[in-house]
Design brief:
The complex is a heterodimer. The relative contact order of chain A is 0.11. By secondary structure, chain A is mainly α. Chain A is built from four helices and no strands. Chain B starts with a helix and ends in a 10-residue tail after the last strand. By secondary structure, chain B is an alpha+beta fold. The mean pLDDT of chain B is 84. The chains are: A mainly alpha, B alpha+beta. Chain A binds chain B through residues 81, 84-85, 88-89, 91-92, 95-96, 98-99, 101-103, 105-106, 109-110, 112-113, 116-117, 119-120, 123-124, 127-128, and chain B through 53, 79, 82-83, 86-87, 89-91, 93-94, 96-98, 100-101, 103-104, 107-108, 110-111, 114-115, 117-118, 121-122, 125, 129.
């Protein structure tokens, strides 16, 4: 009987522990994910994504805002989901901004090269006359 | 009839059931993510230029596929598929950026190359220009030398001509150079030139050959002895005789005019034999530049 009782106690204790840890594991990662997604939105903003990938940036900001609201409402699952999506959106926005900038730079340089080439050809043509 | 109507209905029913039973759980979001992933997979630049992003996208899609295989809720599958889709797009963009950066580096190299080419071309052009200038200078120098040579030749020729004219005792007058062939060069009362006269004619022909522009007028004169008509005729014949001699020596006939003046324009008094001899003469008037010879006044 004693052993039975002790077993029950242990089971109950474990259940409480698991329940608590479940609570803790829901709250802590959600908070962390929201923080990560906030940092990612900030990084994308400083990469110029607001101009270069406005749709993705808008989605990221909106989801981050909703994630914060869910966090405040202790809806950790929704907060985590939204934070993960906001992170993905922000990363895409930053990636798009970077590729747009690099592409512009490459195009500009190509244009410069074309002009330079034309100039060289013109110079050669005139000096050979 | 009834059987024929039932057959397609049964077929449609079986297809519907088959679809139901074999299709695994999926969502349009997941299908789209799978399509995007295949596109990224078939673009070799993505795996090469954005391996980390591609791996993350692949893992995200795996999670979504696993959720679908476990028949989790459509909402959960959609969420995971959305994440996968965004990560695939991120990988594509990262690859594009990397490619553009490589293009920039390549373009910078190209630009340097073109600049080098331009400088090389410039140097080559400058060298070619210098070569051309040197060639021009050489040509000019040679031309100047040739000109100097021909001027020297001209001067020598001129000197020789002056010498020949001096030999002929030519006198420069306003009508041109006048060469006088005296009476001794003709037999008395005859028009034929003596041997001495022929030698003088030869010298005149030489001068004319060297002066292609020149023309001459041969003028005959006599003393006052005899009738004036005879003298006129004799002077004309002597002038003609000199003309013929010159033609015989190769002077073109068009360049020689003749004129007989008879006893007009004496150079001495006709009062003694010596003076009369001076009056019996032929004068050759030479126009060096081809200008017409004015008649005597």
């Amino acid at each position: 009987m004693m052993t039975m009782n002790a077993q029950w106690q242990m089971l109950c204790g474990m259940a409480v522990l698991i329940g608590l840890s479940g609570c803790a594991s829901d709250k802590t990662p959600a908070t962390a994910d929201v923080a990560v997604s906030r940092a990612q939105v900030a990084a994308a903003t400083s990469a110029g994504a607001a101009d270069l990938a406005p749709a993705e940036m808008q989605a990221a900001r909106e989801k981050l805002m909703r994630a914060n609201q869910a966090l405040a409402a202790k809806d950790y699952k929704t907060a985590q989901d939204l934070a993960t999506q906001a992170s993905a959106d922000a990363q895409l926005a930053q990636s798009k901004a970077n590729s747009a900038k690099a592409t512009t730079a490459a195009d500009e340089l190509q244009n410069n090269i074309r002009l330079l080439r034309e100039e060289v050809q013109r110079a050669n043509a005139t000096s050979q006359q | 009839m009834k059987k024929l109507v039932l057959l397609p209905t049964a077929f449609a029913m079986s297809v519907m059931f088959a679809a139901c039973s074999t299709t695994p759980t999926t969502t349009s979001q997941l299908d789209q993510a799978r399509g995007d992933f295949m596109a990224a997979q078939s673009n070799p630049s993505v795996a090469a230029n954005a391996p980390l992003e591609f791996k993350a996208a692949s893992d995200a899609l795996d999670r979504a596929n696993t959720a679908a295989a476990k028949k989790e809720s459509l909402d959960e599958i959609d969420k995971l598929a959305y994440i996968a889709k965004q990560k695939i797009a991120t990988a594509q963009e990262a690859a594009k950026a990397k490619q553009a950066e490589a293009d920039v580096a390549n373009a910078a190299r190209q630009r340097d190359e073109i600049r080098l080419q331009a400088r090389t071309a410039e140097a080559n052009n400058a060298k070619a220009a210098a070569d051309r200038a040197k060639a021009d200078a050489d040509a000019a120098r040679m031309q100047a030398e040739a000109a100097a040579n021909s001027a020297r030749d001209e001067a020598a020729k001129n000197a020789a001509l002056q010498q020949q004219l001096a030999d002929l005792q030519a006198k420069q007058t306003e009508r041109g150079i006048v060469i006088t062939l005296s009476d001794v060069l003709f037999q008395v009362d005859r028009a034929e030139l003596s041997a001495e006269g022929m030698r003088t004619a030869q010298k005149v022909a030489d001068v004319l050959a060297q002066e292609p522009q020149s023309i001459v007028q041969v003028e005959g004169f006599t003393d006052s002895t005899g009738t004036s008509s005879h003298n006129l005729e004799l002077s004309q014949r002597r002038a003609e005789s000199v003309r013929n001699a010159l033609i015989g020596l190769g002077v073109p006939s068009a360049k020689i005019a003749t004129r007989g003046y008879g006893e007009a324009y004496p150079v001495a008094s006709n009062s003694d034999a010596g003076s009369r001899q001076l009056n019996r003469r032929v004068e050759i008037v030479l126009s060096q530049n081809g200008a017409p010879i004015a008649n005597r006044r």
